[in-house]
Every structure is written in structure tokens, then in C-alpha cells.
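Postdoc handover notes: sequence design on the structure in folder B. Input C-alpha cells:
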């Protein structure tokens, strides 16, 4: 069975759209996924499955909607894909704080106009690199006041997107490699 990383968008950010990770692990295990593990409360899952990624995505979205009563968009990557994301690390020379270094995982590559709009939002100290279905963003002043981050975190990209900081990305890769 292949190790896959499942990333949920927009859960456990406030009082709404709450999902307890033990319940989520149990729910996915009853769907036939194996070795289901979660990391922190923001919807990071590593599991084993022989199903194609689009089927894993659809099953996760359907089960979450049915069980928890709301839609949670899902992005899925294989262990090998996540290994490539980490190996690329295009901002390694400037991104010195992993909590301020974000990877946004996309369902599809961005439209060129949308990417140019994002790049225009970056401050002089920020960096944004798009490689395939990932956006690497360095926010040296933090994400709280970043106009670029506000755009990346929004829903106006034209694709499903969810971001994780570098610490989470590398931890998920470690977890995927353990299985």
C-alpha cells in the first residue's frame, strides 16, 4: 500500500467546523484506509491506501461531509510527491524560520494571471515561488499582516488550496516515510 498525505482545508480554525482528530482517524479507518495517523489539529493525515489519489480525496470529502455535517476541501499527495516538495525547497537560502515559510498545496496549477496578482502582493522582503501545484512563500515579518498571505489563504485562487508551514510539511514527510 502507498503512503498518502491528506490535507484538509479550513477546519479547527475557530469555534465552527470542528473535527476531533481521534474521530477523524476512526472514520477514515472504517473507510478501509490503513495506518491512519494525524498531526496537530489542523487536518493533516498520513494514511496507507492503494486507491488513486482522486478516489482518496473524494472518499475523504464525502465521509467528512456526511459524518461532521460540513464540507472540507481535501488535497492529497503521495509520499513521493511530498518528497519532491521538500527536496525542491526553492527558498532554502532565505527562509530561515520554518514557521514563516509556507507551502500552499493546490488542486491544479494556478492560472498565470492569478499567479501574477499574487506576486504583485508580495512585499519587498517576501518571496513567492510557484512550482507545479505548490506555492512556496516566505513571510519574514510573519503571516498576520501579510497581504500576500491573505491572498494565499483566501478562496479566490480559482483552485482548491491549503497551506502548511515548513515544520508541518517536513513532519508529514517524516510520518509518511515511517510507514
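Designed sequence:
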Amino acid at each position: 500500500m502507498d503512503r498518502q498525505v491528506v490535507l484538509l482545508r479550513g477546519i479547527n480554525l475557530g469555534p465552527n467546523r470542528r473535527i476531533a482528530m481521534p474521530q477523524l482517524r476512526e472514520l477514515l479507518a472504517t473507510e478501509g484506509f490503513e495506518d491512519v495517523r494525524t498531526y496537530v489539529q489542523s487536518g493533516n493525515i498520513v494514511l496507507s491506501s492503494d486507491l488513486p489519489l482522486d478516489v482518496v480525496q473524494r472518499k475523504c470529502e464525502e465521509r467528512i461531509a456526511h459524518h461532521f455535517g460540513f464540507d472540507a476541501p481535501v488535497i492529497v499527495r503521495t509520499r513521493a510527491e511530498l518528497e519532491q516538495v521538500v527536496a525542491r525547497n526553492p527558498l532554502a537560502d532565505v527562509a530561515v524560520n520554518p514557521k514563516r515559510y509556507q507551502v500552499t498545496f493546490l488542486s491544479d496549477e494556478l492560472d498565470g494571471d492569478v499567479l501574477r496578482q499574487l506576486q504583485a502582493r508580495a512585499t519587498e522582503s517576501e518571496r513567492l515561488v510557484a512550482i507545479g501545484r505548490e506555492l512556496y512563500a516566505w513571510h519574514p515579518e510573519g503571516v498576520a499582516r501579510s497581504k500576500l498571505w491573505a491572498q494565499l489563504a483566501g478562496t479566490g485562487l480559482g483552485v482548491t488550496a491549503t497551506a502548511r508551514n515548513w515544520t508541518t510539511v517536513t513532519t508529514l514527510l517524516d510520518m509518511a516515510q515511517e510507514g
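Context for whoever picks this up: The mean pLDDT is 94. Don't rerun without checking with the PI first.
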